[in-house]
């Protein structure tokens, strides 16, 4: 059975979202939410979750390069826990190191404006592909 997954690249002001299919290993950028962290972001994500009906959600876990967890990882875990209380989907935390770097590399040659508007969603796509590869 193919599971539909939604990936979230959480940011302070922008959050990237991607959707994918575990069976085929395909992922595609979905949207960038230009909403600061907080209740409004959670509500916007819940609308996307309802619209796309994923079987599970992947939340990026920003680990340090030495595998330790800093304040941003603590925030991501708290966000994942809060999201889990509001929806019926299983939440997976997944290492998001270098996803932004990979997204920028994939968007090389695109305009600065397009890169700024889409890079977070592409980073969420990279996160989802990384999750597929780790399975």
In short:
The chain has 135 residues and is an alpha/beta fold. The protein is 45% helix and 24% strand.
> In CATH terms, what is the architecture?
2-Layer Sandwich
- Structural Rg: 14 Å
> Which spans of ≥5 residues are poorly predicted at pLDDT below 50?
none
CATH topology: Nucleotidyltransferase, domain 5
Shape: globular
Order of helices and strands: EEEHEHEHH
What does this structure look like?
The chain has 135 residues and is α/β, with parallel strands linked by helices. The protein has one domain: YqgF/RNase H-like domain (Nucleotidyltransferase, domain 5), CATH 3.30.420.140. The protein is built from four helices and five strands; from the N terminus they run E-E-E-H-E-H-E-H-H. A five-stranded mixed β-sheet has the order 3-2-1-4-5, with helices on both faces. Strand 2 and strand 3 form a beta hairpin. It is globular, with a radius of gyration of 14 Å. The chain starts with a strand and ends with a helix. The model has no long low-confidence stretch (mean pLDDT 91).
């Amino acid at each position: 059975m193919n599971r539909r997954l939604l990936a979230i690249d959480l940011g302070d002001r922008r959050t990237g979202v991607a959707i994918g299919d575990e069976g085929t290993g395909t992922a595609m950028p979905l949207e960038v939410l230009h909403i600061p962290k907080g209740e409004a972001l959670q509500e916007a994500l819940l609308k996307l979750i309802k619209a796309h009906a994923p079987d599970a959600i992947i939340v990026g876990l920003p680990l340090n390069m030495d595998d330790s967890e800093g304040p941003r990882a603590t925030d991501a875990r708290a966000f994942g826990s809060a999201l889990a209380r509001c929806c019926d989907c299983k939440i997976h935390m997944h290492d998001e190191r270098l996803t932004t770097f990979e997204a920028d590399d994939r968007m090389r040659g695109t305009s600065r404006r397009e890169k700024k508007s889409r890079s977070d969603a592409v980073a969420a796509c990279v996160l989802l592909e990384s999750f597929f590869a780790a399975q």
